[in-house]
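Ticket reopened. Same input as before:
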Amino acid sequence: MHDTPLPSNVRLGPNSVITGDYLTRDRAFRLFRSRLDPGLVVGASCTMDGVMFNAGPEARIEIGDHCYFHEATLVSDLEIRIGCRVVIGWHATVIDADFHPSDAAARMADAVACSPLGGGAARQPFERRPVLIEDDVWIGPNATILKGVRIGARARVEPGAVVVSDVPPESRVLGNPARVVAER
Amino acid sequence: MDAARRLPPDWHPGTIPDNVVADPTAHVGTSYSFTRFRSEEPGGLRIGRAASLGDLTILDVGPRGRVVIGDYALVNGALIICDSRVTIGDYALIGWDVVLMDTYRVPFDVALRRRALERVALGRPRRLAADVPAHPIRIERNVWIGFEACVLPGVSIGEDAVVGARSVVTEDVPPGAVVAGNPARVVRYRASA
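Engineering reply: fixed in the latest deploy. New output:
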């Protein structure tokens, strides 16, 4: 039922699909480089439509049952754990690392290490913290979930929100940075 | 558009649905825009005189949804999620990856949402659909919306208003206002308004 051949370290639960359309079907594993086994676990009855699983060598992404993601991007260098019945909207991003150091001098050294003249120089360490998205969370289109964030069960992240800190269960968050707002 | 409702040339192998009414002078970039178009309404999409529907625009329109794009409007790669009505006025400019949504498409009651999600895996194609309220969006004449902005259900944006890039518009915008931020706030009014 899938358009994309699965890497050997991907576990896909019964009745789950990793799919896409004319533009998106090839993107799922183009940047999937996890060497862990498993590197990606998807539970049962999930629909991963046009999702990009961008995973570094030490990354693990775990997704529960009955999730529905539409053209979301998951970028992991460490760990992204997502519960059951989570919805992630179009062009939303979940990312668990900075990928470059915040210290200015270290960042300059990292720029050189990444460059064509890097000559295999070691990369500088950067911040990585696991992301946890609990059961029944809804994340709107164009939203961004950054490293170290825990989104409590049944919370609702509005479209375009940039989530930089924990979200309490049952809450609705909006804005950049995302703040808890009243229901409407 | 030819008699078979194809767009020569088109990189995507698809057709334009029968209930799309486009002025002969309008530009429709690709049939890919209609891969999620399920409107059963007569005139489910109306495209005005010399209006343009840019290449990566996606019309995620449910069976009862209707989208109207006014004369000379330019929709340059937006996602339009519509279950009731999305109206884009004449001369409006909509940037890329803008989200215009008149519905959240999911029930906020957790028990109802669970049921909707459990139904998804039974359908083909797999689509999240639930009977949830939709609140029409109106983008009035000559509005300019910057790239990656979001307009939430029920919002109206008044004539001549400007919405900054990546803004999230949660409430109505008065005519002539310039709004920016997430959530969007009025930063000033256009001098000519």
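Residues 10-98+127-181 of chain A form a domain with the UDP N-Acetylglucosamine Acyltransferase; domain 1 fold (CATH 2.160.10.10). Residues 172 and 182 of chain A are 7 Å apart (CA to CA). Please confirm and we'll close it.
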